[in-house]
Target: ATP synthase subunit b
Amino acid sequence: MNLNSTFIVQFVVFFILAGFTMKFIWPPMMKALDERAQKIAEGLAAAERSKADLKAAEKRVQAELAGARDEGQKHIADAEKRAQLIVDEAKHTASEEAARIVANAKADAEQQVTKARDELRDQVASLAVKGAEQILKREINASVHADLLSHLKAEL
Model:
């Protein structure tokens, strides 16, 4: 066998094999590689979108939390204001009630003082009549001296 003919045969076989590979094997393999690269690119893009969505969701969550905190503080402030209004109203009502009770007590005391004065006048008048009866040693007619007693009562 000749070295040159072997080279030529190997050269021809190489080109036939290369042509067959380029015609039948290479296109499906490139297609599979391209599909795989596209899937990887889509996966990376989806991951990037997910990261962006996650960041946006975190921002929304933070905004919602801040809004909820503000709303909670607002509710607490409103409740404190309402509580203060209730306390002020209760104080005002208690003050009015105390003033009414004091006024009633003063009126009752005034009535009792007036009643006590009237009773005291009656007793003094009765004692004066008894004293005069004792002094005169005679009986005094109450109907005759009614004007005298009423005058005495008015003076006392």
